């Protein structure tokens, strides 16, 4: 039995002119991205391309920017797949106008325009504000650990790095003497990746890692001197240092020495006081009654503790600091899934899940980052024209929400918007609220800062307000890491990953703006 089909006519010539407008329907994301780039402030993108007519003309930076925005919006960050899509995908071809930038050109554009691409975040935020998406009533601050483009097992000690630098210098000198190609120089322990292909590149990366170790050692030494000076001041007054004893053997030894000095000062003061009483009694022809004082117990305990700390410090192995030789700016950080080599990425998000401020740091702990992020938020909103001055942030933001990682008395009482900061992890906070029960009214006047915050969190209004934190900011991180698969940065170095983090949030904000635009344009007037 014969079949009748509609068959493709691949050899059919086009008899009419082809228009790219016919390739994509109206309202497609590609058209939206093209229109958005026209509205962004792209002045910085053109700064690297002076109009002097020298050399081969560069690709239009606005086209390259639109290409990257669309690629990131569809979950693609790598230059080779982007080049492949520019050859075959209709949306990519429309954005590029039929041009096909190769992967090296795309990668160089990202590197050369690093700061310009980072600065586009503010322009995108301005567009979101014009659409009414920048709601400042309730904001949430949180952080997520992002992996670096570096392996956890590539952390090396200063001795190892120094040895490799010397080997590299020796190999370089040998190459210059014998004219051996760089690729034939063996260098055990250093991965011959493209970014480190040249001896200069390898040497620079190793020296950067060594500089990280030296800086950490200098900071640690300065901190020890500061603590030693504070301990000496306390010891002179005979006061014992407060707080828990440190676990580090060297720090524990310094603490024991300070405690021993304080105990000795107290014992000497007691002895001097008794001598004064004896002298006064002898002058009056009397004698002191009561038993003779024995050895000072506090001094004896301090001597035993000092001896134990000295033995522990001598038995402990020497501390070996390490740095990553692939990405020296990255740090070892702990996540729910274990340890990673990465960065601590911060963000402040509003109820519409628009990212208002962002940053990438090397600090594994969030407690020191609350106030810097509030300053970053004020600067970003001012630059975007949302607020007139940085001081307006206190009046503009009604409530700031943060989890227990940001809790400290300084953060709870610092200048800025009203805030609710959890004092315990979420599950502990809920359990404590069930055990203590709810409360009403303002905190008691005698309550400490911690007690006042816990009181507010147990009120119905406070508990309801804090509940907004999880569904405000956590979906943003979930979208980036789970939906788009962005669990680690593609580039290396703190400045590079900060630019990449900003561009991720720019595309996320534009996706929200696109969704808002389509929703409202579909509503009949």
User: Could you spell the SSE succession in H and E letters?
Assistant: HHHHHHHEEHHHHEEEEHHEHEHHHH
Shape: elongated
Residue stretches low in confidence (pLDDT < 50, at least 5 long) are 187-197
Care to count the β-strands? 8
Helicity level: 40-55%
The main sheet comes to:
6 strands, mixed
| Strand residue percentage | 5-15%
Provide an overview of this structure.
This protein has 525 residues and is an alpha/beta fold. It has 3 domains: 20-112, no CATH class; 125-149 and 327-521; 155-324, no CATH class. It contains 18 helices and 8 strands. Strands 1, 4, 5, 6, 7 and 8 form a 6-stranded mixed β-sheet that branches. α1 packs parallel to α5. The model is unreliable at 187-197 (pLDDT under 50).
